Amino acid sequence: MAQRRSKGAERELAVVTAAAELIGEQGLASLRMADVAERAGMSVGHVTYYFPSKTELLIRAIRQSEEQFQSDVTAALARHIDPWSRLVTLVELAAAEGPRDPGWLLWFEVWASAAVDESVAEVQAQLEGWWRGQMADVISYGIERSAFRADHPERVGSVLSALTDGLSVQLALGDGTTTRDDLLDLVLSTARDLLKVAR
Amino acid sequence: MAQRRSKGAERELAVVTAAAELIGEQGLASLRMADVAERAGMSVGHVTYYFPSKTELLIRAIRQSEEQFQSDVTAALARHIDPWSRLVTLVELAAAEGPRDPGWLLWFEVWASAAVDESVAEVQAQLEGWWRGQMADVISYGIERSAFRADHPERVGSVLSALTDGLSVQLALGDGTTTRDDLLDLVLSTARDLLKVAR
Amino acid sequence: MAQRRSKGAERELAVVTAAAELIGEQGLASLRMADVAERAGMSVGHVTYYFPSKTELLIRAIRQSEEQFQSDVTAALARHIDPWSRLVTLVELAAAEGPRDPGWLLWFEVWASAAVDESVAEVQAQLEGWWRGQMADVISYGIERSAFRADHPERVGSVLSALTDGLSVQLALGDGTTTRDDLLDLVLSTARDLLKVAR
Amino acid sequence: MAQRRSKGAERELAVVTAAAELIGEQGLASLRMADVAERAGMSVGHVTYYFPSKTELLIRAIRQSEEQFQSDVTAALARHIDPWSRLVTLVELAAAEGPRDPGWLLWFEVWASAAVDESVAEVQAQLEGWWRGQMADVISYGIERSAFRADHPERVGSVLSALTDGLSVQLALGDGTTTRDDLLDLVLSTARDLLKVAR
DNA sequence: TATGAATGAGGATTCATTCAT
DNA sequence: CATGAATGAATCCTCATTCAT
Description:
The structure is a homotetramer.
Chain A: H1 2-26, H2 33-40, H3 44-50, H4 54-78, H5 83-94, H6 102-114, H7 118-144, H8 153-173, H9 180-195
Helix pairs in contact in A: 1-2, 1-4, 1-6, 2-3, 4-5, 4-7, 5-7, 6-7, 7-8, 8-9
The structure holds a DNA duplex.
């Protein structure tokens, strides 16, 4: 039965989720195996039983967090047919929710680690590629339906995804200047400009 | 005499520089006081003499790195009168040099730490503000001279700085897809679009 | 039926054999219950079912290894009537095969453990006694048949067994200087001298 | 001044000595860095400051123990001119003192470790070579002075050193059968036989 | 019998920080 | 100012042993 089979997987998931949460809350540097274990509701030794090393755990945490994001995106896009709505949806999902968005804080740690750890870099590159691919797909989709117009669609995709990232950093670090509405407004108005979308 | 007075300051600077370099090369997590001391050419004990705590050292390293950036920017901008040249110069200085750009890797660590440490967040906010202010100033300068045209200049400034940041992340993490030329090209062509700059 | 009855014993033997092999290969310090279980083809939990403690397992492994040796010796001696042939056979069976002889490496661990653990010491003493007893018996046997001549036969037995041990250590540790042929040659020529055996 | 210079060396020696003692008393398996530190009168962290790893410490302990042995031997031999006295002296120094002789228990650990760890094997081989070399030298010395007679002096050397080792094992493990007097008696009477020494 | 997930005590190692010199 | 030996708290990881199934 599925329940049986998933018993181990459930506990493993609990560890990964706990780790992702803790990194998003306190940063990777202060992540203790003991804290992860406590939050996951099991012994320290058992966390090690699932994840031989801390790095392994980080990678799984990233993957887990990203799989969640990807399935959210996929589900959300499926609910929209209008290209502009799809674009808006994508940006809304990707953008930081607000200051100290744990998902984004996790990403900062990923960037810092990727710069130093090859295996993290690999995962990061893969996920980054997926996210930019989604943006490119939405734009192509809009162009096909004549909703968008652009000489270099893939360039516009790069710009919009990078812009969303850059503004999310500002928002997540909460300098107070940028709000989530500002972010969406800036990204989408830039998109309108670059994609020649009629208001 | 200046030499007398600066002797201590020089050694202190050596420590800060060493720290900034090491963080850019190996990441903050693996920064050891002993390594800093070695690179700075002094004993561990003496590094502690200057910087009682590791956090203190990190903050000084960020500041130092940023002061360098700021004086570089100021000097470079002074060499240009043409608004577009100033904009190009600013982007060129801010953008990542290429994969594993130590300056940007340091920056990733700052983001990750700022999310967790209030004092780092303060410094980060301050520097982020300065950088966006420079962008805004250059744009205003161009508008004053009728070289640029924009309904919401401050918004364009936000977009261009965030875009530079977002693309620099991609470049610094070296997924290979993005080159420095791509980055400059994307930022500057977006600038042309948004600022209605004639070619 | 024998098969029924021996099923458990067989599995138990597999564990003991696996342990003896692993100690001979990697040393006692790095002996893991998990490795023993894997090699014995069963789960960790089940190994514990047979051997409640690791020490228990070690003692059984020694005994097992020694019982093997004893039955080999007994069988081999039975094939010879000539006293000198018996002596040669005994030395050949006891001596190390060559560098890293697993049987001897196990023996080193036994010595080290016996020095510290009373129960291991007991087993060791018992087996050491058996081995020297065999040597003494062979010598007495030779004297009875007038093949050997010695004033203090038990002393010669001690010398020959100790000599075999001492040379086996050198051979097993593989300093390269001593070969198995050297070993046999030295022991047997000493035996000839001490037992006045004509060539 | 020598006192100044040796301050660090003294403390390092204290660690090595403590380790050698503890191994001789309790065995390598139960050697704890904490115990070593305590006996050496310093903190655990400081032991690591001198010896990065436990293996490193073991090797130094062996070396230290052996250097002591070597200088004892050298000094003792110098006090004798008569070849037979030299031989007796050598055997007396090398042979185990009695049951649980810590020096010999340390050797058992060395043998067990050498079988598994290359760096330990190296040291062991070196020291083993030295010891057999001394025996060979004493024999040659006796032959030169016509005190000993042997067709293959180097073979006799091998036999006598191996015999001393083999009997010392028995004595150190304290099966009770063998006493130190027995040991000396057996080795020396064998020597008399093999070297044709007149009583 | 048999499994293997789960535990938790135990120990090595790291490293910022202190302080006598 | 400068050193570097010394400390000890902090934490990861190992692994024998237990136990529900």
